[in-house]
Design goal:
Blueprint: H1 2-79, H2 82-117, H3 122-159, E1 173-176, E2 180-186, E3 191-195, E4 202-217, E5 232-245, E6 248-264, E7 270-275, E8 278-283, E9 288-307, E10 312-314, E11 317-319, E12 326-348, E13 351-358, E14 366-376, E15 379-386, E16 398-409
Antiparallel strand pairs: 1-2, 2-3, 4-5, 4-16, 5-6, 6-9, 7-8, 9-12, 10-11, 12-13, 12-14, 14-15, 15-16
């Protein structure tokens, strides 16, 4: 009986151990499968994250491409326009003047320090300041001459039709100056333009003029001693245009500052020679290839301008624009002579010579005269006449006269 009980317990223990082993194995398999599933899930999540990051990078690259494309469109149709290029050159000229004036100011302050310390006398200080001012004026002229050539080339391209005016673009927003904002909403159905005007009674312009130059002798330019086609004038500067009446666009006051270059090319192989207080033309002993005399002036022009640009109305508001229709200006100018020089070119024994002579040549130190212009938009026919003689003490009085084209880049 005891042996049967013992066998029953042994058999029962065996079954329990077997079942426990089976359950343990099942539990381990379930745990292992769950771990494998979690690892697979992690791999799927990481793979999905990589796909999302890759998509983000693609979107970012696409945005950069759109941004670059938009810049290219704006650069092609706006920044390469005639007005934008002219404004860039105007800014360059203005920056040149500011830089050199700042340098001259620091140099003059250094001279003042030397004067205060007693290392130089007042006469020496004045002489140094004069030399520094003349040196800076020469540097300004040379640097501006380069920009002036760029502007002349730009104007020629404009005349030849190689450069177009400002065009609208597919850019979402383009600002032209400070008064006009163009916004485009592009889709497959429509395009809208929204204009935002900022009314101002005073506007500014960059002025550039060029043309023919000669002299009036005894009230006539006939039988002139100077070449008609070879003698030229140039002028560049900045002006302000103020509307005189609040609710009328006809009358404007135009004022500013300009630099004038008056060139004269004598005929018959002649040059200017100084004889005491007289400056006269004399035949050169050398066969000249070219002879040119130039006076440079800093002037303040003042004109009463009639602008026939019509007013515009939008959303119940009235806007006055300028430089869009017929314009007529009449006034004058006054200023001082900055420098005078004579340049001659000749050839001896196959060697080219280029000589420059600088001095006052008895030229008038002050300039004043009358000027007028008539044109459409930003382009005008320009006429100016000096009331003062070119040479202050000459027996025969000769007055400078110029006729050319004037551009007022608004």
């Amino acid at each position: 009986m005891k042996s049967k009980i013992h066998e029953y317990k042994k058999d029962n223990y065996y079954r329990v151990s077997k079942n426990f082993t089976i359950y343990l194995a099942l539990l381990l398999c379930l745990f292992a499968s769950k771990m494998v599933a979690q690892e697979d899930r992690k791999e799927q999540i990481n793979e999905r994250k990589e796909q999302i990051n890759e998509r983000k990078e693609q979107i970012k690259e696409r945005k950069e491409q759109i941004k670059e494309k938009r810049k290219e469109v704006v650069a092609k149709y706006v920044d390469n326009s005639f007005e934008s290029k002219a404004k860039a050159i105007a800014d360059k000229i203005e920056n040149i003047t500011k830089e050199e004036k700042a340098t001259l100011k620091s140099e003059v302050e250094a001279v003042n320090v030397q004067l205060e310390n007693g290392s130089i006398t007042k006469e020496q200080a004045d002489a140094k300041k004069k030399d520094l001012a003349q040196a800076r004026a020469t540097i300004i002229e040379n640097r501006i001459a380069v920009a002036q050539e760029e502007l002349k080339d730009l104007v020629q391209q404009k005349v030849n039709g190689k450069i177009a005016d400002s065009k609208t673009t597919d850019s979402s927003t383009v600002r032209i100056g400070k008064r006009l904002v163009l916004t485009y909403e592009n889709d497959s159905v429509k395009r809208k333009k929204h204009y935002e005007y900022r009314e101002r009674r005073t506007t500014s312009q960059f002025v550039f003029a060029l043309g023919l130059n000669n002299v009036v002798t005894d009230g006539s330019v006939e039988n002139s001693d100077f070449k008609f086609a070879g003698s030229r004038f140039y002028e560049w500067g900045f002006s302000y245009n103020s509307r005189l009446f609040k609710n009328d666009n006809l009358l404007h006051l135009k004022y500013g500052a300009s630099v004038m270059y008056n060139d004269l090319r004598p005929t018959e192989n002649r040059v200017f020679a100084v004889n005491g207080n007289q400056t006269t033309l004399q035949t050169s002993t050398i066969d000249l290839k070219s002879s040119r005399f130039r006076n440079v002036y800093l002037v303040a022009p003042l004109h009463l301008e009639f602008d026939f640009t019509k007013k515009k109305e939008k959303d119940g508001k009235t806007y006055f624009r300028t430089h869009e229709r017929l314009r007529f200006g009449i006034g004058g100018y006054a200023g001082v002579r900055i420098k005078s020089k004579q340049k001659t070119e000749y050839k001896i024994d196959d060697i080219d010579y280029d000589e420059k002579a600088k001095g006052d040549f008895n030229a008038s130190n002050f300039i004043y005269g009358l000027s007028t212009y008539l044109g459409y938009g930003e382009t005008s026919l320009y006429l100016k006449y000096d009331l003062n003689p070119i040479f202050q003490d000459n027996v025969v009085k000769q007055n400078n006269i110029s006729l050319g084209v004037r551009f007022d880049f608004n």
